[in-house]
Amino acid sequence: MKPSVRLASLALFAFQPLLIQPAFAQAADPVAIVEGEAGRTQRVAQQLWDWAELGYLETRSTRLLQDELAAEGFTITPGVAEIPTAFVGEWGEGGPVIAILAEFDALPGISQSAAPSREPLADKHAGHACGHNLFGAGSLTAAIAVKRWLEATGTPGRIRVYGTPAEEGGSGKVYMARAGLFDDVDTAIHWHAADENSAAAQTSLANRSAKFRFKGVSAHAAAAPERGRSALDGVEAMNMMVNMMREHTSMNTRIHYVITEGGSAPNVIPDSAEVFYYVRHSDADEVRALWERLEAAAEGAALGTGTEVSWEIIHGNNPLLVNQSLARVMDAKLREVGGVAYTAEERAWAQEIATSFGAAARPLESAGQVQPYGTTLGYGSTDVGDVSWATPTVGLTAAGWVPGTSAHSWQAVAASGHSIGAKGAQVAAKAMALMAVELFRNDELRAAARAEFDAARGPDYVYRSLLGDRDPPLDFRR
Questions:
Q1: Cys bridge to 273: 86, 232, 246, 299, which one at CB 3.0-4.6 A?
Q2: What is the pTM assigned to this prediction?
Q3: Is position 358 within any domain?
Q4: 124 is in which domain, residue-wise?
Q5: Is the pLDDT confidence value at 98 over 80?
Q6: Are 112 and 198 in contact (CB under 8 A)?
Q7: In this structure, are 166 and 56 located in the same domain?
């Protein structure tokens, strides 16, 4: 080799790190990866929103998430815990196991377009009023970012995605926890759409639900009323007694119901009626105690109306077990990411939808802020609670909805199908990816979280689900 050629080769070799460094830096930056996948986040979120599939019926939604992960090299195990729409996707080997939860079920009985005014869709009878389309899409993007970071850096470890169906009243994660699917997980990460950005250490209410079914005797309501025994009377008598019971419960109690069957014609005494109940409290044992009183009310109602009653427990969730060691770090990661920034068009859309909130409206600027850290009691319920008793768990909320929005509202459906919702999912994906990377790198953090977790559960802890040993209610939304 001539000296001039050799010098040129050495010069090229010397500059190679400068040429490849930007590409490597992006591959090793989870936030940059998430930003690069913004199109995927919005596409997946929109598709899940369009389908709006109900719990345990999310066949297309779960397939979409599985296909996206498989295309990224994840190994997919479908149909886990005897649930056809539940799955686990994993990438990596050795090292810690970090889980990211992904939900994707919609709510029945609520329909709305992505318009900022009330506009039900005639051909849709369900909607993503809790933003689970954003949940699934954001978690997908976060997991892909972490996978690429593991691959680029050569860090040992496994990133695992849990596709968790039927959070809305079906307790999909409870069956997965009961099956031991989280037993080898070091930490689980989750998020939820909301009207604010927060990583506060917020617990939740335990809850249990059941359908109480009354059986009576049909007869002509005018010609032969003495021959009939109204199943609807049984439902109404139960509801009256439970409503009186509310006065004699503790402050954190929540009881609500809906009559799902009550007859078809006033002149036909109904021989079948059904009421669907939820009971909630911050203490799982208090839910169990309240439940005994609920069952006694049902039995008394049947006795007093000459009907028969049976009931089927549909779902049950333990309260979230807060892990301060993890929550404080998640708060720091969320602050590093920041909140949601509206374009001028998005701000105009948000201003219009905010006019429907009345006194509940909040400044639109709060979507770009992160709420102060603290420990609070949330009055919702989630099957993430059972995961949090199986492994150290941490979560956050991101402002995928306009400030002032309530969950389970048409305004939540609208924002979940809008670019504002996708931006909230991106914020969550960035924070979760940063949190996962920190957990892979930081042995001390994982150890501290595990120590706090073990202390909170106690040495004699035995897992007890609030739904007993029943099989998943795969048809409860049919």
A1: 232
A2: 0.91
A3: yes
A4: 23-203+319-457
A5: yes
A6: no
A7: yes
